[in-house]
Amino acid sequence: MYDLCIIGAGVGGGALAHALAPTGTRILLLNRLGPLPREADNWDPRKLFAHDLYKADERWTDDATGDRFRPGMYYWLGGNSKVYGSALLRNRPQDFGDLATLDGVSPAWPISYADLAPFYDRAEAVYHVHGDRGADPFEPPADGPFPHPPIPHDDRIAEVAEGLRHQGLRAFDLPMGVKYSHEDPGGGAFVLRETFEAMGRAAFDGYPDLLHLKADAETATIAPAATFENVDVARADVTRIVADPGGRTVTHVEATVNGEPTTFRADVFALCAGAINSAALLLRSASDRHPDGLANSSGAVGRHFMRHVTSKFYTVASGTPNPTRFQKTLAVNDFYFGVPGDPTWDGVPLGHVHLMGKHAGWQILRDLGPDVLTPDQADALAAHSVDWWVQTEDLPLEDNRITLGPDGGIRIRYTQTNRAAHEHLMDRLETALRAIGFDRFLRVPMPLAVVNHQCGTCRMGTDPAASVVDPQGRAHDLDNLFVADASVFPSSSASNPTLTIAANAFRVADHLASDVLG
């Protein structure tokens, strides 16, 4: 019998295990798959991006069109963080309050930035974050510097950063979770950069890390937690969470292990399967006492789904090559809360921009299609492009939701919000880049299958009639079920969610240790 069963070994589940392992709590961490194989294919871009190596072989349905699509989901130990780009940013204090956006009000959280601040500190340390405290113009307060200094820009990116600053933008070093080496995480030789230069190409953003220097959930939290004798990590596909006849206490989970049905029991359960799958699992766990799904007396399970409004933004200076190998080091937040002095956009949040990993010509061609570029043109464009990722907060509309189809499969209903703000954010960046020699700009909106920033389907709140969990992560309807992934986010902000997932899970872990498991 375990004290705690954690369902899902991603960022949230990993943080819970990491925080509670030293307490002696008997922990069972269940995950659909085991470790992602460490092999040469980890860094093969065509196998990863053209043939979807390591991606989950499943299909979801767009509820609006009926189209089926293969989502960007990775169920290996560490979850989607195995292929994330390691950008680790804090939400701003304003993100935790009601915030007016172009298409409506982003709702307040039942906790404040101050409640999360010490746990952001802990998450930055555990994830080996490099950055320059104070360089981000809207950076939230913190007690000290980042754990490590910022990753230096390659020469071309340093030129772009300086050019943007001359245009009045406060471009800053993107906070990144990565080790320089296993011996010296914060300094010395940057092994990945040296490796990519030797390879003649980049293999970081969107790739598994063959060297385990990227700070993902497996390397940063799960592997250290698993060294404790009181922590067991098991491969199991959890299919149902089961409550007792009274409906207030989870007694066990049902799972499939090596094709066989299996039951796991514990005193307390923590659901950390990711916003979409956590909601789907609760809906699949319906019973006579919980006919609309477990923990769903409010009807909010699956609702308020968010994923950010996102685009790739290829920007090209035709006369200036970009031989950069480790490109993801620069960000722009000047328009996070709007454009001061502009009669239309003053006080209207636009969002966040940072560099992506360097894209090859064939990848750009896949994004834009043969009607826009020939292969030779795509290669020429890639040789000169600086490649950005642009994201804007979307709103937690009640009807943006996860449901189950007749076959039990996942269906997503999603109406995008704040698109015009998103486009204006790229307009603003384009204006600044044109002034420093860029002359071609290509925008690629991300489809519904891109759900790496999914959140909001089991929102936290103080009102059991309008939320799924309380501010400590406990399900309103059950005494021993907690949720500690991005599903509990009441709003998405415009920042990458990973650091906030980890920080909130560390906060929930402290509550479990002091008030529940002790």
Helix share bin: 10-25%
Number of helices in the DSSP assignment: 11
Low-confidence stretches: none
The largest β sheet comes out as: 7 strands, mixed
Mean pLDDT: 97
Structural class: alpha+beta
Q: Kindly estimate the percentage of residues that lie in beta strands according to DSSP.
A: 15-25%
* Mass-distribution shape: globular
First CA to last CA: what distance? 16 Å
Radius of gyration of CA atoms, rounded to a whole number: 22 Å
DSSP strand tally: 21
Written account of the structure:
The chain has helices at residues 11-20, 45-50, 113-126, 155-166, 191-199, 217-225, 275-284, 361-368, 375-384, 419-434, 498-516; strands at 2-7, 27-31, 60-62, 68-69, 99-101, 104-106, 129-130, 172-173, 176-177, 231-235, 237-243, 250-257, 260-271, 309-316, 330-332, 352-355, 385-392, 401-404, 410-413, 440-445, 481-483. The two termini are 16 Å apart. The longest helix has 19 residues, at 498-516. Helix 1 (11-20) packs parallel to helix 11 and helix 3 packs across helix 11. With 518 residues, it is an alpha+beta fold. 24% of the residues lie in helices and 19% in strands. The strands form five sheets. Strands 1, 2, 10, 11, 12, 13 and 21 form a seven-stranded mixed beta sheet that branches. The chain has a six-stranded antiparallel beta sheet with strand order 8-15-16-17-14-20, with helices on both faces. The protein contains eleven helices and 21 strands.
